[in-house]
Amino acid sequence: MHYVWMVIVGFVVGLVARAILPGTQALGFILTAALGIAGSFLAGLVGAQLGWYTPGAPAGFVASVVGAIVLLFVVGKLKGGSSGG
User: Fold this and answer.
1) DSSP alpha helices (H): ranges in 1-85?
2) pLDDT in tens for each of the 85 residues of the chain?
């Protein structure tokens, strides 16, 4: 059941991140959920390194959204930079 909640919350985080970041992101359900999960993981790692979270503690919702926005921004720049020729 933990994994089901992880996917649901990850999907919501991914949707919020896509709504906040301007532009169009062509992501389906699975990639949106993966974006949210990865954003939460990134926020947890960075937060633990900065002393905001204890190691292994989950990141908060806002931090997860910020992590997902950062990932979405980086992926957008990598895609935009490599396709221009």
Assistant:
1) 2-20, 29-49, 61-83
2) 767 877 888 888 888 888 888 777 777 788 888 888 888 888 888 888 888 888 777 788 888 889 889 988 888 888 775 444 4
Q: Copy the structure tokens of residue 41.
A: 């993981």
Please tell me the total number of residues recorded for the chain in this structure.
Answer: 85
Geometric angle at alpha carbon 13, from 19 and 66, rounded to 5°: 80
CB under 8 Å, gap of 24 or more: what pairs does 14-17 form? 14/39, 14/68, 16/65, 16/68, 17/65, 17/68, 17/69, 17/72
Residue 70 structure tokens? 């950062």
Pairwise CA distance, residues 56 & 32, whole Å: 23
At 60-75, the pLDDT tens digits run 888 888 988 998 888 8
Domain ranges in the chain are 2-20+29-74
